[in-house]
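Our consortium's second objective concerns turning raw sequence data into structural hypotheses that experimental partners can test. To show how far this objective has progressed, the report includes one record in full. It was chosen at random from the queue rather than selected for favorable results. The single chain below, 474 residues long, was entered without modification.
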Amino acid sequence: MAGYRSKSIKDELRDNLRERLSTGKESFEGVWGYENSVIPELERAILSRHNINLLGLRGQAKTRLARLMVELLDEWIPVVEGSEINDDPLKPMSRFAMELINDKGDDTPISWMHKNDRFYEKLATPDVTVADLIGDVDPIKAANLRLSYADDRVIHFGMIPRANRCIFVINELPDLQARIQVALFNILEEGDIQIRGFKLRLPLDIQFVFTANPEDYTNRGSIVTPLKDRIGSQILTHYPEDIETARKITEQESNLDGRQTDSVYVPDLAKDLLEQISFEARDSEYVDAKSGVSARTSITAFQNLLSTAERRALLTGADKTMVRLSDFLGVIPAITGKIELVYEGEQEGADGVAGILIDDAVKSLFPEYFPEINKLERKDAETPYDELLHWFFQGEGFELLDDFTDEEYKRTLDSIPALNELVEKHQPEFPKEDVYFLKELVLWGLVSYKKLNKNRFEDGYQFKDVYGSFINDL
């Protein structure tokens, strides 16, 4: 305790943030895409000693930001040993701590609380009660101690008093019933609590962080206006604004098995395509934009993508393999559970919409690597794709089977001279190990522009001339 100076948690956060900012150290490490938007606002709120509401759609790192605030706390703080509410030895609040200090004086037993233990989190659900959060009279305690209900020692403290001198996060605040939100008024403004009519004033020292979805999306409730008025800063979060940032998040959060990353090679183009699917979903007419498309969509899709390739390698007895565009069929289950569909999307079906999003992602990336295909073209106009389309027109197309070994896969793609020439002409510097994924992108891109036809059958894909397919169907 020598040299210890009592300090509120908000001052603690503020002082440690000041030190980080002045030394150039990151205040919220491992959060990408917020460097010039959310993080500066969060830093300003902490410097202002505000309670904070992080408002944004699902999968925007709101809870992660709250948890990272723990790193701005002092490493250790002293606590009166045995105190239910983490009493500061120099500023005791509870009857237990005050009586113990009066009795023991300088010999009062002290324990030290690490910063990692100073984070409390509660998911707001409709069944949360005032007793859960604030506290209530405990009749069992009263009976065991033979105390009157008028004695404040019969109080059982709820989660908030027990989080004294800690960061307390309430996730999905609008889900909390309005009458429970009202119970937070005094804590936020005056810093005290009231339990069952007791004249009990506990000047709690808590850093509150709330998270919420925009109210126009949350149909289960809303944040009551007086509570919003008592929250110092409301900070809007957002999704990654570019594919590069989205890729950093996905790679950081994927938690892959080392054996998987060692045995499966993922082309950079495949990673870009995976992220583009989420970007397409956020703009899709089939997806409810108000519900958002979580960053977890890309994370779980990436895991499925590698697992699809890994499974094939295990079945074919290969030590190593590479991700193929046809492996993206395996990411569909990771997409369907993460997107909310509007009426038109329900008509297409979740799997159908996922397939459309993959095709749209291919279509968006295609012009970055090859000449754009115009919707309207003169009948006899020459295009860079004429020879390739002619190859399909003359033949019966070809098939890419799911269980092809890497050698069979490469040999099949190499068997189309016009495809090889097209890739060599427009992407001569493309990494050699990624060129087969690029070749598949050409075929899928031509399908998305309705220049070729792609059919999925039980164990693979078939690519055919679009007109020949139509004639055969007749």
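The partners drew two points from this record. Residues 469-474 have pLDDT under 50 and may be disordered. The first strand starts at residue 52 and ends at 55. Both points have been shared with the crystallography group to help prioritize constructs.
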